[in-house]
Amino acid sequence: MTEQRVVLVPDGLAGERVDAAMARMFGLSRTRAADLIAAGQVSLDGRSVGKSDRVSPGEMLDVTIPAERDPLEVVPEVVDGIKIIHDDESIVVIDKPVGVAVHPSMGWTGPTVVGHLAGAGFRIATSGASERQGIVQRLDVGTSGVMVICKSEYAYSRLKNAFRNRTVDKTYHALVQGHPDPLVGTIDAPIGRHPKSDWKFAVMADGKHSVTHYELLEAHRFASLMEIHLETGRTHQIRVHMSAIKHPCVGDLTYGADPVLAKRVGLERQWLHAVRLGFEHPDSGDYVTYESTYPDDLASALDIIRDAH
Hints:
- The chain is elongated and about 75 Å long.
- About 20% of the residues lie in helices and about 30% in strands.
- Strands 5, 6, 7, 8, 9, 12, 13, 14 and 15 form a 9-stranded mixed sheet that branches. A 4-stranded antiparallel sheet has the order 1-4-2-3. Strands 10-11 form a two-stranded antiparallel ribbon.
- The chain has helices at about 20-25, 30-40, 115-120, 155-165, 235-245, 260-265, 295-305; strands spanning about 1-10, 40-45, 45-50, 60-65, 85, 90-95, 145-150, 170-175, 185-190, 190-195, 200-205, 210-220, 225-230, 270-280, 285-290.
- It is of the alpha+beta class.
- InterPro entries: PsdUridine_synth_cat_dom_sf, PsdUridine_synth_RluA-like_CS, PsdUridine_synth_RluC/D, PsdUridine_synth_RsuA/RluA, RluA_PseudoU_synthase, S4_RNA-bd, S4_RNA-bd_sf.
């Protein structure tokens, strides 16, 4: 939807810049007005203008104003790469690829899991905020793997409680730099927002209780493949905890990984994958487990590490 506004410049705005005149006449911000001018949506007496051009009384100002999309609106669109692992009346289990957010959020304009499910015709539980309906867990945009979304209200209620009560088994594999000591251990360190960066997290004394269990699967010259079980589910928890013990996920430049090693193994994101998810099915009560294999970029990076001498 777009709005077309055509008005004559009044005497009181004589000599004003076009962006300032638009701001006063249409109630727009100067930034929004400048954006419309830059996008070629503004003309003055039929000629295109720059934001610092001046207006004269009686000139015809013609502005096309596209409707601004709500950043939290769920846009139905089928996303390449999302695989359906399991689907029944209550839940849908997916294999999320890298580069897909779980739900819309401020500042994110890319594809989302909830948008894909809407586009593919799935009916999702209506519990939760409108952009997060049916969502009981999240994976970072840069983390791939298995996750569950609820289709029925009953399933949402049961699984929301299961995640809250930590009865869901969440298993990840992470390729981390170096060799953690000990090779099997628990990291119990509170996590909060990074004091100097809005989009990062860190171990903070006043952070939320966070517990990560890890054990070695494979040791290689430059890196170790670890199996990780989350007791809590904080944002970026594995990435923050592994970085805190000086063994960041390979490729995780945000949390201190070596860019040279990341380039060598061809990674543009952290080597972290949700391999397994186990829980009591909300309908049957049976314990169910769903798994996801490594995507191509992680498998390739691991092969390079295995072959390094």
